[in-house]
Structures are given as C-alpha cells and as structure tokens.
Amino acid sequence: MYQRDDANLGAASYYVTGAQTWGVSNVGKFTEAVYESYIISSSRQFYNTLDPELFQTARMSASSLRYYGIGLQNGNYTVALQFADFDFEDSQTWQSVGRRIFDIYLQGERKEKNFDIMKAAGGKSYTAVEKQYIVPVTRNFLEIHLFWAGKGTCCIPFRGYYGPAISAFSVTPNFNPTVQTSRKTGIIVGVVVGAAVLGVLALAGLCMRRQKRRKLLLEQQELYSIVGRPNVFTYGELRTSTENFSSNNLLGEGGYGSVYKGKLAEGRVVAVKQLSETSHQGKQQFAAEIGTISRVQHRNLVKLYGCCLEGNKPLLVYEYLENGSLDKALFGSGRLNLDWPTRFEICLGIARGIAYLHEESSIRIVHRDIKASNILLDANFNPKISDFGLAKLYDDKKTHVSTKVAGTFGYLAPEYAMRGHMTEKVDVFAFGMVILETLAGRPNFDNMLDEIKVYILEWVWQLYEDKHPLDMVDPKLEEFNSGEVIRAIHVALLCTQGSPHQRPSMSRAVSMLAGDVEVGEVVNKPSYITEWQIKGGNTSSFMSNNVSGQSSMAPRSSASHTSSPFLNSVIEEGW
C-alpha cells in the first residue's frame, strides 16, 4: 500500500496520514535557508532503480526527522530505506564539495553513523541507494529516526542544504499477518501528542542550549584571562580523550580523585584527574590557584597542563608518565626491577623536588601527602612529585593549623596527625618514610611479615641499634653501594625524628644524600617508638590489644579510618 508524504511541515511540527497508519515529526530550522519548504524535488533521471519517480522528491530536516509506524502487529519486519542525493553535484566543480552526513536509528538503536548518501552511491548524485534492516516490533510501534549530528556542510552549494533527507521507504512483515491493523484512537492521540510535545521540548531545548552555551562562553572568557587560553580544556574534549572516562583508562585513585589516561586530538597523551569533591572556593578563585600551580615547574614535579572547570567536579590535566607510581614499581603488582643506582637517583630526585617546593618556588608549597603512590616515574625512571598544591585548593583556613588533616597513615608526622600542626617538616617526615620504602622494596606497614618487621621504622631502628642496618636492603638488590645505603638510612632516620625541630630542611637533606655535607650522628630513637615498644611489646600485640586486630595503619588507607597503632602510641605519649 503506497502512501504519499507531501505534508507541508515546518520547523517543529508533525502530522498523521489520513489512513492513520503513519506519523511524521520534524524538528529544526535551517540557518538562512534559501526557501522554507522541507520537501525538495528534481525532474532529472535517477539511476540504479526501477522506479525513478520515487526519488524525484525527498523530505529534508534541519535536525531530526522521525517516521512512526502505528498499530503494527508484533514481529520482525524488513525496513528498506531509499535515498538519492541531488543537492550535491558529482561534477568536478565547487558544487561537488558539499556533503550530507547524518545518523540512522531504528527503534532507538543506531544502525548507521555518519551516513553519507553520495559516498554510499560511489560518489554519484542522482543515484538510488537502498539500506535494508531486519527490525523487531514488540509494542505495535515502529520508529525510524534520521538525526543530523552536526557533521557535513551547511552552506555548499546552497545555504540550508544540510541534515538528513530520505526519498522513500518500505516496511514489510517477515510473516503472514493474522490480525487486522489496529487504529485505535488512543494510539493515534498518543503518537500525535507525543510528537507535539517532542517538538515543543526540542524548541525549548534549543533555546536553553543557546543560553547555556552563551553562559559557558562568558565563563570560558573569564577563565582564559586568569589561566590562559591554551590551559583551559572543555569537558567534551577530555571526555572524548578518556573514552568517556572508561574504566579501561583508569590509572589509579587517590585522596583527591580518580586519574584517567587520555589522548588529546593532537595526539598528546595526558593524565586527567577528576577531583572527587568541589572546592569551597569559587571558579575564578579556583582557576587562579590552578594558574599559580601550573607555573610551579621543576624537573622533579609533574607538569600541570591546565584544567576544566565545567560542572561541579573540576578536571586537571597533567603530563602522562609511562612507568606509573613508585609504590607500584617497588612493591605493587606491576613491580619493576629497579637497581641501586636507579633507586638512589629516585631518592635524590624526590628530595630535590620537595626542596624546590619548600624553598625555591615563587610560592611556598607544603605538599602534606608525600608518599610512594604520589611519586611518578617517567620513561627514564626520573621521579616526579604529583598532587602538589592540591591541599591548598581545599584548605579554607590559611593558617598553619588545619581542621582537616590531609595525608596518609604511615607517612603522617606526629605533630600533624594529632594537632593539625602543619609546616614543611611534615613533608620531611614523609620523605624519610619514602626513603626507607625505596631501600627496602616494601611498604612502611606489612602485617604479613615477621612481628619485628611489620612496621618499617621500628624494624630499621632495631637493625641500626644492633649495627646491622644493611640487613634492611631489598633482597632483590644483588649489588649496591654500601656507603650510599648507609647515608640514605641515616638521612631517613633524621627526617623521621619525633620533634620537627630535629628534622633537617629539605635542602640539607639533599646535600646529605648527595654526600656534599656530613650526615653526622643520628640522634636517639624517637620517643614515640620507645613508648610504643614499652606499652605494646611489638606491633602485632599492640594492634590486637588496641584496635581489635584491624590493620588500619596500611599506608594507603583513608585519613578518616580508625586510628593506627602508630597514632595510638602517639596519643599515649601526649602529642
């Protein structure tokens, strides 16, 4: 049964055929169109068809064109869509430049992406193209949707010749119908009302989209003036670069959020950090802080390329480092075979990076969360500190006392863990722990080891007092420089002293590690370890007596978890 589609549809309109078997909905107004008709015609001869008259007219749409089959018996149907493009000539002139590209959906499922009629016809105009699909009808209803996704040309050869277009289509049941076609009024009214609502909503959506885009452009202009145009990314390009933040691209998760591997349009590989919570600051102030951090650059700091501040979860774009984090390289599932010279240079590089943040940068930055998982390694195993400056973005108090401790158990200095007293010596303490982990090739807490080895600082002090400090070196290191190892152990023990005044500055720690100045004698064992041993006997017994066997002291646990044995001992001591 042939039905002619010759209704005069406008920018947002619908109609139902007289036989009440088909509904049509059109949405979209052509920009500066030559004429207002949405039906185009040609009397030329069409090829590759036995019925050229079908292709002499075609319906166009500036955005979205839907056909509804009403009251169909449920079952599988063969849907044949027929196209022929005669807007774009295939001659060797400027008129051949135009391209009509759109997507095809059937029953809401995309069947064709970036469909180009002329390309499908071998680059020929006035040539019929037929696409056939087997489509299930399960609710007596069929929807054919042609959607312009913003691709192709809009002004060549004439303005207003973009968007989907179709010449004819047929729907044939792949079975023998057993019931009469239903044409109940309720179905018709439902389709008509639905199409009308769709049109109204589409118009409203277009208006809202324009307003939103205008507001976004104004916000971007403000951000450009603060951060600089090259350093502001759109959410769309970062979502595309990470494949919609796919779990396959997840590099890791930390205290500030998740990090994804992404590839920008120009081919540059980046790491995109999706911050887990919104700063208390406004976007402009947040952008100003990001701009400041991005200007802090050192060979041992991860480079911050820029940011995206659309929505409530800001995105930060960093350089991508091939060899991942230090903790994974040392004792993670993807551990690497790091020899002693590499490990020693890693310790030196970390020290230089922290010293730059504390003493050489234009703004003094206390990291607050120095740990092995925040140290990243490039292709040559050069260490780079990540997440520096982020604590400042979320700290609404500008004094040295913070109401929220930012850090990781096992790396927290006593004065910071118990009183929130934050100075650069907090980073010095954490650096000492990272040195010990790098030398030993193990985390600072591991309750799978012998009791005396569970907490690395207690174990190393025991070896140091017994005059066997080299016994703490990673067994995988077959060769190492004993003098450098002893020097590194001494520096680590100095950095982890209980009193911040007894810890060296980071610039002095660099000099001591490099052998430029004498390390000197390590002062006495910190009182927090002595108190711990007196009251708890050992790590395991203290843990079982005080925290019911919970191993909440693991180095990558959250600061909001149950307090660790180390912190309990600090509490007992009166910090």
UniProtKB/TrEMBL annotation:
InterPro entries: Kinase-like_dom_sf, LRR_Rcpt-Like_S/T_Kinase, Malectin_dom, Prot_kinase_dom, Protein_kinase_ATP_BS, Ser/Thr_kinase_AS. It comes from the Eukaryota. One of its GO terms (molecular function) is ATP binding. Its EC number is 2.7.11.1. The keyword Membrane applies. It is found in: Membrane. It is a single-pass membrane protein. Residues 545-565 are annotated as: Disordered. GO terms for cellular component: membrane. Keywords: ATP-binding, Glycoprotein, Kinase, Membrane, Nucleotide-binding, Phosphoprotein, Receptor, Repeat, Serine/threonine-protein kinase, Signal, Transferase, Transmembrane, Transmembrane helix. Residues 245-519 form the Protein kinase domain. The chain crosses the membrane at residues 187-208. Its main location: membrane. This is non-specific serine/threonine protein kinase. It comes from Zea mays (Maize).
